[in-house]
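S.,

Sequence below, as promised.
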Amino acid sequence: MLFDWIIALIVIYGAVLLAATVGNDNFSRALGILVIVALVLYEPILVSRIGGTLGHSFNNLRVVDEGTGGNIGFLRACARFAIKGGLGLYSFAILAATPRNQAVHDLLTGSTVQIRDPAKALPGQYILERSEPAATGMPPPLRRLAVICCYLLLTAMVYLLITRGIIAAGVISDGCIDRNVCSANDRILSLNLGLTLLAASASR
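The prediction came back faster than expected:
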């Protein structure tokens, strides 16, 4: 991603320099539109055509269709790019929790990022697919997910009830909760409530 960002910055800087040199509003506007279109289509076109961006290729990586092992299609590459752009770094938060080390944008588009040429890769540069441990006596995954969601919903409801109770008691101001106009004491109490909710959510 860093490599691709550097390329994007070079393109933007070059376009700005060219527009400033020419000094024509119509040319600058057309050049700006061209650069935006090029930057938006850069990843989808390269991922669907050659299996990755210049950053992927530089790092010996390739985006692969989970089903076929080939390149993903252009529309799926567009969806993958849009999801990754929308979620940003949050899309990568689940890498360690998936067997194939997939980010959210890969899971949702049925793709994986793999080593392009294994002969050029060192063992420390990739992680093999993890096998799921045998779930002896465990309920089905959907049931586990439903229980987790119910638990988080219940935790949030308890948090809201406690917060409303504290507001009713006058311990924290209503303005702090609704309009974020807080005194120092309000902020400390609000922070403690948030940390308590976080700890309660993580305890399971």
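The CA atoms of residues 16 and 50 lie 29 Å apart.

Coffee later?
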